[in-house]
């Protein structure tokens, strides 16, 4: 898999840090880990990531809404992480969903799927 720039949207700092470390270990460049809808939109507009990995249920705002706002300026491949895949599937039937907890292999598969599904 080629090296890509990734924006992580995760409101749990420990999860965001661990995910960032795993992605760096996979050879990817994590441009930022943000925890709010507003920060996600701002950072995506500034850095134009190759992929968004977004927690669907943020404490401040909503991950699905953040992706919708980001996509108004152009398409960015994305996948959602969640503990409730059914809820996300109801809102976004075509979404790439990575259900928590997940392992590195699941993450790699979801990234590949998001990049090929949206190409």
Structural summary, described in words:
The protein is built from 5 helices and 5 strands. With 119 residues, the chain is of the alpha/beta class. It has one domain (5-117): Response regulator (Rossmann fold). Helix 2 (37-47) runs parallel beside helix 3 (63-71). It comes from Sphingorhabdus profundilacus. Residues 5-115 form the Response regulatory domain. This is Response regulator.
Number of strands: 5
CATH class: Alpha Beta
N-to-C series of helices and strands: EHEHEHEHEH
Number of helices, counting only DSSP H or I runs of 4 residues or more: 5
Largest sheet geometry: 5 strands, parallel
Kindly report how far apart the N and C termini lie. Answer: 14 Å
Approximate strand percentage? 15-25%
GO biological process, one term: phosphorelay signal transduction system
Keywords: Phosphoprotein
Domain Response regulatory: 5-115
Modified residues (4-aspartylphosphate): 55
């Amino acid at each position: 898999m080629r090296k890509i720039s990734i924006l992580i949207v995760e409101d749990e700092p420990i999860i965001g840090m661990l995910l960032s470390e795993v992605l760096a270990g996979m050879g990817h460049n994590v441009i930022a880990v943000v925890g709010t809808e507003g920060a996600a939109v701002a950072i995506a507009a500034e850095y134009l990531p190759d992929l968004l990995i977004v927690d669907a249920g943020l404490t401040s705002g909503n991950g699905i809404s953040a992706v919708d706002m980001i996509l108004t300026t152009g398409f960015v491949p994305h996948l959602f992480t969640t503990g409730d895949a059914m809820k996300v599937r109801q809102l976004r039937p075509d979404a790439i969903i990575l259900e928590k907890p997940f392992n590195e292999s699941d993450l790699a598969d979801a990234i590949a799927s998001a990049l090929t599904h949206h190409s």
